[in-house]
Amino acid sequence: MIDRRNFLKKTALVATGMVIGGSAKASASMDAFPAGIIYTKKNPGKWAKKVGSHAPKVNVEGKNVTIHTMHPMSEIHYIVRHTIVSADGNVLGEKTFYPSDKEAISTYELPPDYKSKLYATSFCNLHDFWVTEFSI
């Protein structure tokens, strides 16, 4: 069986790499993510009715970034993981969730004066991998 943590890390790196390594037009847009593999608020694919509870919401306060997926947590349906990934593909932070967690919320502290495009990811055990792009 594939180690879920390594799979999710690699998926986050591949997802951002597709944007970074693509054409100039692709790297400027979330449209570069492959449909049916990675979902965004703008491109939810078959999960269009799931955007509100699956696309990660990002709040930035100073050097702290909070990712919140507005998703119920239960034994059969829950958010598995959040990551925050830099534009060059480095995973800056990650948090694994469990069905017993009350909510899918994570906070990360960035270095002082950090400025970059970033990606917040959220992985649902039933509705796949979601990404929200944001800048600091």
Explain what this protein looks like in three dimensions.
- The chain is α+β, with helices and mostly antiparallel strands.
- The chain contains three helices and eight strands.
- A hairpin with a 4-residue loop joins β4 and β5.
- Its main location: other.
- InterPro entries: Desulfoferrodoxin_Fe-bd_dom, Desulfoferrodoxin_Fe-bd_dom_sf, TAT_signal, TAT_signal_bac_arc.
- Keywords: Iron, Iron-sulfur, Metal-binding, Oxidoreductase, Signal.
List the helices and strands and how they pair.
Layout: H1 4-20, H2 24-27, E1 38-39, H3 51-54, E2 57-61, E3 64-69, E4 79-86, E5 91-96, E6 104-109, E7 117-124, E8 128-135
Parallel strand pairs: 1-8
Antiparallel strand pairs: 2-3, 3-6, 4-5, 4-7, 7-8
Please tell me how large the radius of gyration is: 14 Å
SS field, number of helical segments: 3
Identify the quaternary structure here.
single chain
CATH-defined topology: Immunoglobulin-like
Write down the overall geometry.
globular
Q: What is the CATH domain class?
A: Mainly Beta
H/E order of the elements? Answer: HHEHEEEEEEE
- Average per-residue pLDDT, rounded, comes to 84
What is the structural class?
A: alpha+beta
C-alpha end-to-end distance: 37 Å
Low-confidence parts, pLDDT < 50 over ≥5 residues?
18-28
**Shape-level CATH architecture:** Sandwich
Per DSSP E runs of 2 or more residues, the count of β-strands stands at 8
Strand order of the largest sheet: 1-8-7-4-5
Strand fraction? 35-45%
Q: What is the CATH H-level superfamily?
A: SOR catalytic domain
Fraction of residues in helix: 10-25%
State the major sheet.
Answer: 5 strands, mixed
Quickly count the domains: 1
GO molecular function, one term: iron ion binding
Subcellular location: Cell envelope
InterPro entries: Desulfoferrodoxin_Fe-bd_dom, Desulfoferrodoxin_Fe-bd_dom_sf, TAT_signal, TAT_signal_bac_arc
Pfam family, one: Desulfoferrodox
